């Protein structure tokens, strides 16, 4: 049975809980990821002839399971599992994780328990990685990346250097041109500061073909993570060099020559102060023709190293650096001028602040291209600094931000306030300062307060004309809303301000536009629903979402007001939250098994006395689970009358509960008629009320209390019967739903999943976008109306009137205001 990505992620993250406490995330990540790695290669390659990774006999995960509870478990993992795997695979040397470290894992029984529990988590049958991989998709690699992201977050500022956010990596991969059809197995990509290798892998993935991967990393543990990461992403032949020295001091050499590559990407440490340690600045021609970077700032040292690492006539690359490299002076200004004059800088992308785990400062991507460098007379600049969402204590690029950046950069599309082709001559005029705000003004236009309108009334026409995108779509709506004043340049609202929304929503042009938008979506549906329903086992989910999303962008490209990237974002969010899990289920199991099979959820409870685990089925509709089809889909499609009947019964019951609450509120007070009817726990129960009634009924003088007690009991009896009816109706529906799951045909499953689940969500998202459009227009018109609703003379007159009223009241009270 295939496991959903979300389930896989939560299972893996749960394993981290076993290790928290004795070390921080920067340390326990090593243990979890090594365990993940051994489980993966054991499932994929143990006993497989000619496999890219050798799993020696006696060193598989199954052999590790046998070590649970062993008093020497840590030492045995080191010597009997990791050691043989390292020895059998040269590319995996120096995994460098000690499972017998008492300082981190505890002494004696504490270590045995912690490691045994960690192994047990990976024993979960659902974590069978030999099955959890659709062709062309690497679920494990994605899970690895998921863990790396969380580890980087938990590690804090000083420990985040081993991970480049996936969103930024994807941008870099898509803009350097590696997806060119000429890419072959001999195409080389290189990262001189590769960390865990995530950036390298994103670039390799973008190539869509096998390429040759090279990386360098100074830290031994991080280099080990990179090697394992390559294996997990099906790139076992990648070469990751680690000599313990910085890349600048110990570059990658082949045949005693400085090695160059087709593509180079990097996220080097920002403003590294010790960059020059061990570096021979006159060697390898790295700094020739450019100049030597400042001794205490290595940004340009890494940039020039990357330039040198690119093949002389065709090399392309991208590097993440702090914004300071764009405008700092002295020797850096000279280097920047020389790079621009050589034509090596193809473009610059300014990123939002606080994206990276190692720093909160804003960074940029510098795109390098030696091809046609001699003819390059401009630099393409993109200011993407405002496209992000807050995610915890960090900022994050959204799917729409990534796609927009990539589209604009690759097509060199100029958008006011966002992107621009800047001639080299203009850069020369600004003394080769590349600070993006000098060339792109991304400031939002100030909302100007019109003094004349405040004094004399009316809405300035320039504010109304600023809404031109709406008037282009609704050409006569403006005249329906506004009347021109005799005073030149001003208008007034023709309707009551409370009627703005109704007028817009009911206007024929607004309704017609809504129909047009629906027609556009119908066009997309007509093309893609058959594709979705034709999916079969073994399809590639990542290819599917690429086709769906790109077609959605193209479909909405020429539609005014609705931003195509907003619709793209809706689809990608739903894909990440729900749809991709469904896609992987279908890819692994097909429609009938994956969609038609339902199962009962099992609740585990621990007996406090015996410590034994008890298992029991979860009762009710909530106890039914299916990987593709939640019970509510079946209920809404086949059992809507039953659902409404239950809702009616629940409404009747709720009314009875309200009556009970009202009676308690009225009579449950000091000396109230229900005050003595509570039990020892200060609660009303049928037994406690009957007991009180038995006490007072025989005596005179208690007639009012007796009546209230009897009425209260009637309500309790009524409530009990109503609860029984609701329970019986729900059980009847539960049985119907459970039986319906067993009878679902493949056609019905596809209809429920595609039409009722996936497409319905997208339709709802489109409606949300339509609401936003109308609300923005409504709010702006109302804002302008209220801003100039009361001109200054009327305000002054109103103040004088109020002043007279106050003085009159004061005079009546015997006070005279001088």
Number of helices in the DSSP assignment: 28
Shape: globular
Coarse structural class: alpha/beta
> Using DSSP, what is the number of strands?
20
Entry keywords:
818 residues; alpha/beta; 9-stranded mixed β-sheet; 3-stranded antiparallel β-sheet; 20 strands; 51% helix
What does this 3D model show about the protein?
It is a single chain. The chain is α/β, with parallel strands linked by helices. 51% of the residues lie in helices and 10% in strands. The strands form 6 sheets. It has a 9-stranded mixed beta sheet with strand order 3-2-1-6-7-9-8-10-13, with helices on both faces. It has a 3-stranded antiparallel beta sheet with strand order 14-16-15. Helix 11 links the parallel strand 6 and strand 7 (316-322). It is globular and about 110 Å long. It starts with a helix and ends in a 6-residue tail after the last helix. The model has no long low-confidence stretch (mean pLDDT 88).
Write the layout of secondary structure elements.
Blueprint: H1 5-17, H2 25-45, H3 61-65, H4 73-88, H5 102-105, H6 109-122, H7 139-155, H8 166-175, E1 188-191, H9 198-207, E2 212-216, H10 220-232, E3 239-241, E4 253-254, E5 257-258, E6 263-266, H11 299-309, E7 316-322, H12 331-342, E8 345-350, E9 363-369, E10 378-383, E11 389-391, E12 394-396, H13 399-411, E13 419-423, H14 424-429, H15 451-456, E14 459-460, H16 461-465, H17 468-473, H18 477-481, E15 482-484, E16 490-493, H19 500-506, H20 508-533, H21 541-555, H22 564-596, E17 598-600, E18 602-606, E19 613-617, E20 624-626, H23 631-638, H24 640-667, H25 686-696, H26 703-743, H27 746-787, H28 792-812
Parallel strand pairs: 1-2, 1-6, 2-3, 6-7, 8-10
Antiparallel strand pairs: 4-5, 7-9, 8-9, 10-13, 11-12, 14-16, 15-16, 17-20, 18-19
